[in-house]
Amino acid sequence: MSSLIHLVLCLILTAIPVPAGKPVTAAAVVCVLSCDTLDPSRAQQDTFPVPDKLLDGRLLRLHVSDADGMAWGSIDRGVTGDSVWLDRSWDGGATWEGLLGKASIPGTWTGTRTLMYNVTDPGKHRRGLIRACGDAAGVACTEWIHPKVCDVVCDGTAQPNGDTQPVPPTTLYGRTIRLHVDGNAMAWGTVESGARGDEIWLDRSWDAGVSWAGGSSLGRTPVADGASTGRTVSFATRDPRGRHYGGAVRACGREAGHQEGSCTAWARPAPTRAQAAADALLYSYDPYPGWWPSSWWNSAATLTAVIDHARTTGDRRYDWVIARTFERNRGVFPAGERSSDAIEGNFASRAIDDSAWWGLAWVAAYDHTGDPRYLSMATTIAAYVHQYWDPGTCGGGVWWDRERTYKNAVTSGLYLRLAASVHRRTPGDSVWLQRSRTAADWYLASGMINAAGLVNDGLTGDCRNNGQQVWTYNQGLGIGGLVEIWRATGEARWLDAARRLADAAVGGTVLTRNGVLTESCDVGQNSCDDNQKQFKGIFMRFLADLAAATDSTAYRDYAKRQADSLWASDRDPLNRIGQRWAGGTPNQADWRTQASGLGALTAAS
């Protein structure tokens, strides 16, 4: 096909025949990294994962860019009026959206192509298949992509890498039906104490068990004549190519003499605890706007938790999330779109602490990827935050908001950590070193740290400790900032101060109850707001940093105790983690509590 043909499309939406036997449904626009109908000239890749189809001498081809998650079709060696389009299915090919991007060859041309369409829809938890179809004195289609799910290995694997059972078995007329998973998050089912004709299969869902179109009766296998057991082959539960993480599975079976079946509970397999929490957290990420709707600073802290996990494990499968979040959120947004405040570009807003959270996220992104644009953004944000360092009130500290109404622990702790981090990653720097020294000295002398070694929320108008609530994240930010200035200077006094803050938290009774990190809103019938849901994971991130700096067995044991507690008492079979790490009610669970739990599990790993 000529380059001119690749740049010009003639879209004629006319009714044409389709392969018989399959219903056709109307299409809605899907947006992932881009929205449907992107021009193929903008594709990052052009691959051909299925064989071309010959149709009466015409060449029908499916083009795929996994980097974009999109596909398009082309027809060549044709004549005027020949056409090409895409079919897209959300139920494994049982039904499809037809005629997507239908284009007909105009006069004097020999070929044409469709626009690009998303293959799959992770934002709405639908896994799609797509194929190219053409009409040239008859209709034909290529094969679908991608009917098999592939992670470390692909659907259909027979040899497991280990064997655990994440949920209890179910029984049916004396048969026992079990769900098994292995170290690669592959799943299979077995039936025991059965007889000839009994059946075992898996269901796989990408929306946490709400539906399983396209994943029903996977590997359906009968018990052989003379046998009493049966098993399916293994199926993947993560689809990194389609940007689906943490698919849910269950094992189901049927006794030969009855029509009804029985299934285990749904489970979301993962090879490690932290990976399980990360997969469940990525379920809530919306790739088109590139954040976790709809909390601005929480999304920054959540991205940092994902990056910490990735950096700790060496896992690169989430690097696209980092890049996507950066590109989609560094611009300008009106009030109400990302935050109640307007976002003015480069993550700046009137909420100074919100900007600083994003600064720490980009420091973590730089450490993980080495991409200099992340360090550049962190430095830009640090410079913005520094504008609100004001020695004219209380001798220093950073204002919490642009209106300069409050000097508090969170903004001051963020600034200290961010300033020292920028210094350590900027060769030849002296400016940020001096700023971080000044910030650390002021922080310790500010009065925000009370006699018990705990950090109260902030200062009064006359620069005294306001006695407001001690929160775990304020304690953690103090630890993190002091550890980073110690790394920058080598001065033991900073590390000693970090230890004092940590010991007050893990050894006292205010923030630790019965050995478990506990927020004041975790107690009794209290409930935590959307901000407070995320505090404990932030503390654990910085306690782990201190443990690494000091090689402290006590801090590592404490981290392990938190991970053990939340895994045993605060997690469901889909690895969703709640607010109360010791369990109990009322217990909230959403992506914020999930990010907090991931922070604890990463700290212990």
Describe the protein in words.
With 605 residues, the chain is of the alpha+beta class. Among the domains are: 120 residues, no CATH class; 94 residues, Sandwich (Immunoglobulin-like); 94 residues, no CATH class. The chain contains 13 helices and 23 strands. Strand 5 and strand 6 form a beta hairpin. The longest helix is centred in the middle third of the chain and has 18 residues. The protein is globular, with a radius of gyration of 28 Å. The two termini are 53 Å apart. The N terminus is likely disordered.
Quick synopsis:
This protein is α+β, with helices and mostly antiparallel strands.
Core attributes:
605 residues; alpha+beta; disordered N terminus; signal; five-stranded mixed β-sheet; hydrolase activity; hydrolase; five-stranded antiparallel β-sheet; Glyco_hydro_76
Structural class: alpha+beta
Question: Numbering strands along the chain, what is their spatial order in the largest sheet?
Answer: 1-6-5-9-10
- Total DSSP helices: 13
Q: Segments where pLDDT lies below 50 for 5+ residues? A: 1-21
Mean pLDDT figure: 94
Euclidean distance between termini CA atoms: 53 Å
Main beta sheet, described? 5 strands, mixed
Q: What's the oligomerization state? A: single chain
Instruction: From the alpha carbons, calculate the radius of gyration and give it in angstroms.
Output: 28 Å
Number of strands: 23
Q: Outline, from the CA principal axes?
A: globular
Instruction: State the helical fraction.
Output: 25-40%
Strand content: 15-25%
Protein name: Glycosyl hydrolase
GO molecular function: hydrolase activity
Signal peptide: 1-20
Pfam family, one: Glyco_hydro_76
